[in-house]
Structures are given as structure tokens and as C-alpha cells.
Design brief:
It contains six helices and five strands, in the order H-E-E-E-E-H-H-H-H-H-E. It is an alpha+beta fold. It has a single domain, classed as Ferritin (Up-down Bundle), CATH 1.20.1260.10. The chain has a five-stranded mixed beta sheet with strand order 2-1-5-4-3, covered by helices on one side. The chain starts with a helix and ends with a strand.
């Protein structure tokens, strides 16, 4: 088998802190989540989808932990209560997915929040809004890839919480505004957006240092 034929056997979606793109390499990795010194492979099937969700929940949990450890100077009591609740939810989501994956779970991801000014309320809440709306779209888009109905039910329960988070953050940014009911994310039919992993991962890329590959997720 020549090198060109070998290369054509694998198209990996790769995302990392320096960007994202399609990388062509050798043969497929095993069909379960693994982590190596070089990064993490999400795996395929339901394991791949759960690891995908687990990676995003790791990112969100780490973000809110940092927000509360280094609060911006103008943080009001209501800000603190809401952000603390969201932090606790994201930690619970992260831990739930890790437990569900068991030995197939990818390792801990190294995050990069250098683009966020944690001393600025606008920067923190603006980033939170991006994460929450991305999370909603990610779960909506991944639902079609899940085969196990129990996992699908769990994902549905999580995405509804992510949507509540998005609404809460939007209201903190724009109190009493029509934009707090999903403007820009809900279509004319009243349906929320849905993005496939291939659309979500590049958007998360600037905040992740660990190279993550998805060999078979759409």
C-alpha cells in the first residue's frame, strides 16, 4: 500500500489551542476514548459523543471555577449567585459524564483562557454567553448521533440546563431585553440552533491546549 493510499484512510478533525483543521494521518485509532501524551482521541459511537460532551463540560467547568476564584471587581451579589450556580451545574455535568464513560473517558484537558479578561465583567459574561449558546447547539446537534436511548435522555436533560444558563447570562448582560429570549439563536419556527461536532470543535479551539481528535464524529 503506497503512502497516499494509507493517508486517505483517515481524516481526523483536530482542534487545539492554536486552531483547527483536517489532518490526514495513518490508520484509525481504536474505537474508544483514549488519552496520550500527545492529546486525546474521543472515540466513536456513543463513547465518542459522550467524550465530546465531556470535553465541552470540562471547558465550561474550568471557566466558571476560574471566574469565581478570581472574581471581577464589579461583581454584584446577583452575579455571584448566578455564576456560582452555573459553576456547580457544569461541575456536576462534567463528573456525571466522566462516571458514565468510566475507563473510556479521555483525560483532563488543559485549557487556555488567555483571551479572557477575568477582571472585566463584560469579558467574563461575554465569554460565558458564547460557551453556553455553543453548548446548547452542540447538544442539539449531537443528539442525532446517539444510539443509546438512556444517553439521549441524559443529554436532553443537560441541554435544557445549558439553555437556562444561556438565558441567565443573557439577562445579566442585557436586563429586560428581548435579546434575553434567544434572539440570534432561535429561528423563525421557534427552534433552537444545532451544530455538528465538526462545527463546534473549531469554535472551542482557542480555549483548549490539549490536541483532541475525533476520528468518526460528524
Amino acid at each position: 500500500m503506497d503512502m497516499q493510499t494509507k493517508a486517505s484512510r483517515r481524516h481526523i478533525l483536530k482542534w487545539s489551542g492554536v486552531g483547527a483543521g483536517i489532518m490526514v494521518a495513518g490508520s484509525l485509532l481504536p474505537n474508544f476514548g483514549i488519552s496520550t501524551a500527545l492529546g486525546a482521541e474521543l472515540g466513536d459511537g456513543d463513547v465518542g459523543v459522550l467524550n465530546y460532551a465531556y470535553a465541552l463540560e470540562q471547558l465550561e467547568a474550568a471557566f466558571y471555577i476560574q471566574v469565581l476564584e478570581t472574581p471581577f471587581s464589579s461583581m454584584q451579589p446577583n452575579d455571584h449567585v448566578i455564576l456560582s450556580s452555573i459553576r456547580d451545574h457544569e461541575i456536576a455535568h462534567r463528573d456525571f459524564l466522566k462516571k458514565a464513560l468510566g475507563r473510556h473517558a479521555i483525560g483532563g484537558l488543559e485549557v487556555d483562557f488567555s483571551a479572557v479578561d477575568f477582571g472585566s465583567r463584560a469579558s467574563v459574561l461575554g465569554t460565558a454567553e458564547v460557551f453556553e449558546n455553543l453548548g446548547v447547539a452542540a447538544y442539539n446537534g449531537a443528539g442525532q448521533l446517539i444510539k443509546n436511548v438512556d444517553y439521549l435522555a441524559a443529554a436532553g436533560s443537560i441541554v435544557s440546563i445549558e439553555a437556562r444558563h444561556a438565558a441567565a447570562i443573557s439577562d445579566l448582560l442585557r436586563p429586560y431585553s428581548a435579546q434575553s429570549v434567544g434572539r440570534g439563536h432561535v429561528d423563525a419556527k421557534g427552534l433552537d440552533g444545532a451544530l455538528l461536532p465538526s462545527q463546534v470543535l473549531p469554535k472551542a479551539a482557542p480555549f483548549i491546549k490539549t490536541p483532541v481528535t475525533a476520528a468518526s464524529l460528524a
